[in-house]
Amino acid sequence: MTEELPDGVSTVVNESQDSDEIMLLPSNLFDQKIDRQIVDPRNITERRRGLTVEANSKLRVIDQLESGRMDYMIMKVNRYLADGSEGADPGDLAIFLQLDGFAQGGFESIYDPVLGGSVTGIKLSTISELQLPEQMGMFYLTVDQTNTKVVVFRGRAGYAHRFRLEVMNTNASSSIFIEFVEIARARRTAKEGGANTTGSNLSQMGY
To answer: Alpha-carbon torsion 184, 196, 8, 114, what sign?
Structure first.
């Protein structure tokens, strides 16, 4: 089945694009049996501690097919690794948060010739440079120091299809240490087999 892209996708830079990055639903779900959604109203808070992101690598923190509302995300990033050794600048961490078709920093993968690969999302160093104020629906830093950064995202409008958080270490030689990441959301429905909140059970994109 031909993969379709959601509206609002910009031009791909340098012809480098992970086709799964900009999908409302992961491409491999098209091969799965499609069932109807399950009503699953509950508040969920997840916390992961002590995450080491190796040089030039990605880490998928969460990726859920569901509908709901995000309340907040808070992440503390440190230059010093778990063993006390010095790692990369916390500003080198890129965050990609997808709420259906919304992603601050865009869905485009920008090719980095130093890394030899594509970077998706927005780097903490960029957030620091922009000095973004505290407001709903946008990343901002509550701690912006050389060795430590704390980034917060407060909730916005609900999502109907997909909720995903990924991070990438854009440093080519050193690891980055995430002391913790905490995500709180209110789930409405779970999407068993990739079904939608609305539409027929064969309409994967909800159009």
So the answer is: positive
